[in-house]
Amino acid sequence: MQTVTLSNGVNMPIIGIGLWQVNDAQQAEDSVYEALMAGYRLIDTAAGYLNEEAVGRAIKRSGIPREEIFVTTKIWVQDAGYESAKRAFEKSLKKLQLDYLDLYLIHQPFGDYYGTWRAMEELYREGLIRAIGVSNFLPDRLMDLVMHNEITPHVNQIETHPFYQQADTNAFLNELGVQHQSWAPFAEGKNNLFSHEVLARIAAKHNMTIAQVVLRWLVQRNIVVIPKSVRKERIIENFNIFDFELDADDMERIKTLDTGNTLFLSYHDPEVAKMMGSWKVDL
């Protein structure tokens, strides 16, 4: 399994299974189990995904030693703050049936995430979390967090795909020593990604699928990927990206697809902050 080394020396698999929008508990459990059987060792869930219990069951069902699996979960906005973050962490740990987390992320840059970060720093020092990070933090908000806290986030999980390549942010994260992780690597199929002419030509050239080309492109940029799938054959397909390599011409052609804009939510928009701040989940 190819890994990246976080700034604290922890090794993180470069590809994992993502659980966003896998709402059916049995489907979530089966997806994680099939991924683990296929060789995946990174699982990405969140309190807000409402499938942490299914992940815990799949890990136990797999029989794979705990230390071989890298488990990520995230804290939702309504649990932001020092005391509530501590409670949310314990709740997630219990649902996952684990004694520690490999990575804990602040899911959204809203609410009292400073209080949350102080709680996470303490849990990290206590050895209950191997690495801590954030998700959806723009460079300015990330720099603000770094400047006023002791521990620099080890990971920032952000929207990254061929149509929103985040090149400048990637360079910024590299300067800070923060690992770049992609959510929505396939842009959820937007802009006809799975039939896009440029990507199709590259895929045909290598006798691979468009999905494999996209994941390989991200991995070659040293970006951790967490593609979601509930189909066994696609889970296996997504994992099989390490026996080919995109050349410089391929990388340049994909670079031309960048629009420089999100296909989902703009974190510059006050309405997004308002929506996230009022979005309550039955955790």
Automatic annotation (TrEMBL):
One of its GO terms (molecular function) is oxidoreductase activity, acting on the CH-OH group of donors, NAD or NADP as acceptor. CDD domains: AKR_AKR5F1. Keywords: NADP, Oxidoreductase. Substrate binds at residue 107. The active site is at 49 (proton donor). Residues 15-257 form the NADP-dependent oxidoreductase domain. The keyword Oxidoreductase applies. Pfam families: Aldo_ket_red. InterPro entries: AKR (IPR020471), Aldo/ket_reductase_CS (IPR018170), NAD(P)_OxRdtase_dom_sf (IPR036812), NADP_OxRdtase_dom (IPR023210). The record marks 74 as: Lowers pKa of active site Tyr. Belongs to the aldo/keto reductase family. PANTHER family: 2,5-DIKETO-D-GLUCONIC ACID REDUCTASE (PTHR43827), NADP-DEPENDENT OXIDOREDUCTASE DOMAIN-CONTAINING PROTEIN (PTHR43827:SF3). This is Aldo/keto reductase, diketogulonate reductase. It comes from Thermobacillus composti (strain DSM 18247 / JCM 13945 / KWC4).
